UniProtKB/TrEMBL annotation:
GO molecular function, one term: methylenetetrahydrofolate reductase (NADH) activity
Keyword Signal: no
Gene3D superfamilies documented for this protein: 3.20.20.220
Protein name: Methylenetetrahydrofolate reductase
GO cellular component terms, A-Z: cytosol
Sorted UniProt keywords: Amino-acid biosynthesis, FAD, Flavoprotein, Methionine biosynthesis, NAD, Oxidoreductase
TM spans (from-to): none
UniProt xrefs under Pfam families: MTHFR (PF02219)
């Protein structure tokens, strides 16, 4: 099932998970999926894996398992910098065989210790190439606080507009902790006539190291109230977990009340956190 059709009927709520690291047992992802079963998000996306996916398990394998066992649409992440055109063709054929119709097409992070492939300079190039290879629903990333490599927000919105015009059918935002950034970004998209559904990416922070890593990797602003929460509870693991869950719930309640197209929850493969947020907000997506 194509995930872009879901927005015609409701406010969408989805999850993101990632494959196990190279050094982790393959079964860890299956344990995560088993514990997520029954929570019934509208779809689940699968990243290529933090620090490199386990060689014995592909993103396509996990995406297929989600569809076969949880009866949910799945989304496979595809970062352009990791693959050549020939490699992308092979991956797309595998996705077709496994009946995975949805792809999150990304430029991908440029890593200092890994030489990027040269066939796709931008996500837009990958979108155009995927369109030539088959009938996929293509999803793109967007950045409420502006992409870190863009000169300014105007250039960033122009690039996003180009990505949508190339064939991107829906967007998922990078995480943010101040909803006002998302609302300002959405206004700019409306002015630019970017008229595809935009899901707000929400990450519940459950420990201080997690947020330090996110800030280092992303251009994300931490509000004063968020910093105070981290400072107050950083030495109490249960308290900081519960505070992070509460903060994410408050963000979601406000976003849904303001008419957001959907929420994409970065679960960090933590079923407990995902369940608590799902239980607290489920009725918002049924109204």
């Amino acid at each position: 099932m194509r995930t872009d059709t879901l927005f015609n009927e409701k406010t969408v709520f989805s999850y993101e998970i990632f494959p196990p690291r190279r050094t982790a047992p393959v079964d860890t992802i299956y344990h995560t999926l088993a514990r997520l079963k029954g929570q019934q998000p509208d779809f689940i996306s699968v990243t290529l894996g933090a620090g490199g996916a386990n060689a014995n398990l592909s993103t396509a394998d996990i995406a297929q398992k989600i569809q076969d066992e949880q009866f949910l649409p799945s989304v496979a992440h595809l970062p352009a910098v990791n693959f050549s055109k020939d490699e992308i063709v092979v991956i797309l054929e595998e996705l077709k065989q496994k009946k995975v119709e949805n792809i999150l097409a990304l430029r991908g992070d440029l890593l200092p210790d890994k030489e990027p492939k040269k066939d796709f300079a931008y996500a837009n190039d990958l979108v155009l190439f995927i369109q030539e290879q088959g009938d996929f629903n293509i999803i793109g990333a967007c950045y409420p606080e502006t992409h870190s490599e863009a000169a300014n927000s105007v250039e960033d919105i122009r690039n996003l507009k180009r990505k949508v015009e190339s064939g991107t059918n829906q967007l998922i935002s990078q995480l943010f902790f101040d909803n006002n950034y998302f609302y300002t970004f959405k206004e700019k998209c409306d002015i630019a006539a970017i008229d595809v559904p935009i899901q707000a990416g929400i990450m519940p922070v459950v420990n201080k190291k997690q947020i330090e890593r996110m800030v280092k990797m992303s251009n994300v602003t931490l509000p004063t109230k968020f910093l105070k929460m981290m400072e107050r509870y950083e030495h109490n693991p249960e308290a900081i977990r519960d505070a992070g869950i509460a903060y994410a719930i408050n963000q979601i309640v406000d976003l849904v009340a303001q008419g957001v197209d959907g929420i994409h929850l970065y679960t960090m493969n933590n079923p407990y956190v995902a369940q608590k947020i799902r239980e607290a907000t489920r009725s918002l997506f049924e109204a």
